[in-house]
Predict the structure.
Amino acid sequence: MGNTNHALVGLTSGKAAELKVEYPAGGVPSVDADIDRCQAVPATDADGRLGCWADFDKKLMEQVVPWVPLIWDLSTVLSAPSLTRYVFDQASAEISLTQIAVSNKEQVP
């Protein structure tokens, strides 16, 4: 419950059995080798490292999970007139507690 990895990237048949979930017949994509390859590029080779991760990102978005799931497509927010700044955090589907502001002035109804 709460899984946002809808493509099941990296799930192995062994892990699926351990979790008692059905493993797709066609398997699932894995990018472990790609991550290992980019991690192996020395930090001193900034251009090579950046290029490797850029290629990884392109492969991930074009071949592995070419969609971004939208789980919480509707959110209702009740607020008071004293709320002066509000930012919705898409990652948590909640109010961003670091991006909120309220007025301390007395509100007259």
Notes: The first strand starts at residue 83 and ends at 85. The chain has two domains: 13-64, 72-109. The helical segments are 13-19, 32-40, 46-64.
